[in-house]
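User: quick one
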Amino acid sequence: MARTLKYLLSGILGVLLLAPIALLLLQWIGDDGSLSFLNGKTLSLIGHSIAYSSIIALVATLIGAVCAFLLTQFHIRFKSFYTFVLLLPILISPYIFAVAWKDIFIAVGGEKVMDKSILELIFIHSLLFFPLAMVIIMSALSRISASLEESACMITSYPRAVFKIILPLIQPSIGLSFVLILIFSLSEFSVPAYLGINTFTTEIFTQFSAFYNTKLALSQSILMLSFSLMLMLSEVKILSDAPFFTVDMKGNRTRIHTLDKGKKWVYGFLNTFVFLALFLPLSALVYQSVFAQETFFIRAFDLIAPALVNSVILAFFGACAIVLIGLWSAWLKERGRYSLPNTILLVMFIVPSIVFGIAAIHFYNTPIGNFIYGSMLILIIGYVAHFGFIASRIIANGYKQLPPSLEEAALLMGISPLKCFRKVTFALLSPSLFAAFVLSFVLCIGELGMTIMLYPAGMELAGVKIYTIAANAPQALTDTMILINLGTVLFFIGFFAFGGKILFKRGAHE
Amino acid sequence: MGLIGSITLLILASCSNNTNEVVVYSSVDQIFSEPILKEFEEKSSITVKMVFDTEETKSTGVMNRLIAEGRNPQCDLFWSGDPMRNILLKSKGITAPLHSIAASKIPSFAQDKEGHWIGFSARARVLLYNKKLIAKEALPQSILDLTQPQYDHKFAIANPLFGTTTFHIAAIFSAWGTEKGMQWLTGLKKNNVTIATSNGDVKRRVLKGEVAMGLTDTDDAFEAKKENSDVDYLFLDQEKNGLGSLIMPNALSLIAHSPHPENGKKLMEYLLSKEVESQLAQSCAQMPLIKGVKTPKQTPSLEHITPMKIEYEKISHLLPTIQERVQSWLEH
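Assistant: Done. Structure below.
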């Protein structure tokens, strides 16, 4: 019975998420399915785009690795603050980040040097993606047992121990960060489009939106998808078990060093990236919002408030669905030794959102599928497809730290599996579930590429509203709306963090 | 259980097929179109469900949605910022013919003979300029002048593959022929034209003084003037027998086999009213097509502008060929 249910639910997940992509592939094969579009120009564009994205992945991984190393290995004052603010750029939409930086370049006169320069793209994408490397490498570093490092330090110097012990241990995470950032940078279109830089993604977008040539855009997307899959295959083992971030390291201890020399360099490095990745772009938005000829706060609030309410509700349900599916997939992988749902989520994770958007319209927009396509369910499915893998991995990491003997003992005592899950597993997993929920909530609220394609008629959403209103509204109004949106997200992060603290303190007492 | 119950309730609430509603997809800037649609909702008691997109977002959302939804349309009425998209949808069999009762009030150039689209309030292409960076007397008077050496590094146009700039370039090619059109584009490139991502980006660059001037639409120019009195705009090619300015009416199309065709027609008739044209003139300086509509002083009048003599349908057919050449121009 349990086995049938497992296969049935995996089948449903496959139909909901993979079937739209499979249908699109079948249509492509049926229509033409050839690679005849691959001419010299396209190949050169692909080559250039891979080269740019490789540089971005390299720079971002390097910055992320250094930040992660400093924050994990050393005693840093305000460590939580630095970790939090350095992670915040993940929450800012790439488009908004690009607009803010462009304004800064213009204000400081750097625009003449940077305009349409690939340096501008490398700079902005590196700042956008380094937190991803930081979070992955921090997780890997926090898993290194202090005893290994202590043993090494007894026979050699600390810098040598770093190169001989720590770096080899975190090498898979560095590789994973590089591959993920390469894939994300390659498929991100809003920044190169805004900066006017021609990449393979902007070419797909041009075919799709200027020429309405879905067939060619699809062929090109499939090429990009194949490349991403190939890259991913090289890292599939690591990616499949990727930590992303580990909420709580039960029974693990990391060695923390005190900073003596080089203190100012360490703080200088961290402060530089807090300044570049967050303070400066945010200040640009605040400056334009506050020092405009007219103050738009009330108008901006009136415009965005109803959309924000919808976005929060949608993100709440989206995060709940993601956590439920992530929990189920993690449980099957860690306890059931069955990884099909995890694999489905892994494949969907790298499908560009615009491709899933088109696939979902083709698949769900039928008289039978109207109850999905015409409702917020289509967005919830899209969010599960896009972010389910991250939640699944966070929860799986929580599972890894729970000895199965605890559950086994409870079951041997005659407690029902459901009660065992509720009283033992859920209680111990709750920090990971909570972290997965908060991250999913934030990611759902900020998602734009797919949301703009799939949001149901009549449903206002904050991200879409800002993006569409920005076209002709005064910039100060748009910037004020962005700040209200960002403030709301930060409020909810604070609210969840505070709620989580109370919840887990009470749980610990119990 | 509570969560599943809530999701079910939300789904049921959001997908109930209410007959007293109309679904409109709009590529007209939300800040101008939404208040009008909300007013219709209040007056008619018909719930208006809206999906917005803009030229800035390249209309990817609504156009590709309309094309992808072809088999099972969700939209009743498409409100576009120019007729090009409606003509494309007509060629794909997505629109339905309807001869509106308001058609007699709209000039014939702004409507499809078969009734697949009908225009109202129009915008025009203008040159937006920053008065701090260029004197009025030094301004070009024709788009041909933009290839003159004195305007080197001084102006911007939006990416000509998207939005109304595509339409503008196609109209110029249609008037001059492809070879002269390409020569002009090459001249612009030699003059180091800045390619902005959109008309809104042209506006931003002129406002910030990054370039002295840029080609954009009247609504962007009007907004720019409201934001900063250092900018102003002018209509190019207004001399006798000149090329004239491109006039771009809004365009409405009913979607074939739509779920609420009757409400779609009611909304269409409402949008084709004097009242709406007057509102658009107030909010974004759009020029009414219906005679006798009251407009504020700052709204330009079609009667005082020399328009480009074009056929929208002909331009639309030229578009795919022109776009390919424009794309290679952009890349080299």
